[in-house]
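[agent] plan:
  1. take the single chain provided in the ticket
  2. run structure prediction with default settings
  3. attach structure tokens to the ticket
  4. add a short note for the reviewer (M.T.)
[agent] executing step 1
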Amino acid sequence: DSVRIIDKSAFSRNRISKLNLGNSVEIIGSIAFEGNRITSLHLNDSLQWIGGGAFAGNNIRGELIFPDSLEYIGKDAFTSEKISKVVISDGVFIEGSLFGSDEFKKAYDEYGAGTYLRIEEGKWVKE
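[agent] step 2 finished; step 3 output follows
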């Protein structure tokens, strides 16, 4: 558990289907896990930064919980439209579109921390 930074493109297009980030990871670089086969994801409590496109092109579905330590999510870090529930705290800067559109960012910017549900393609509401 000594890895703090996962560099840009580190595991891009490697056919990864399961991912367990170590507890020490603080930064995930741009397109670090882009184009894999990841279907579910647990983000550790130390994570602070998710670069643009970091998990783009995967098939992540269901619930995604962002840790309270998270400060930044880059543009298109997640492009999966199968994510149906997101839990996020205050103070996270979201740069641009997320989950296939800019609707999640708009909802978060307006309502802040909480649990968000996808009610239809691209539309999010705070629970």
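[agent] step 4 note for reviewer: Strands lie at 5-6, 27-28, 49-50, 61-65, 72-73, 82-88, 93-94, 114-120, 123-126.
[agent] ticket updated
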